[in-house]
Design brief:
Length: 87
Amino acid sequence: MKINLKQQQLIDELLAKVKERYPEIVVRNMEPTVDSPDDIWIHVLADMDEERQMELSSYAAELETDILTDYGYAFTIMPHNPNTIYA
């Protein structure tokens, strides 16, 4: 996956803002979305309860929308709780 300098700058700024409010997140990896290789999913480990995870997603979505509107780049932070047990 190729990320240009502006995308990297925006990703770094996005993650800095999110980590400021949710310092427990850890970036796991990034990948292009299934539908569009220009859109990027940012997978993070988020060891938090479901309510805090929903707050994280909502906060990140606001920032992601601002980036999309201002720069045309679509990023989505995808939180994953490492302690979740799937049945």
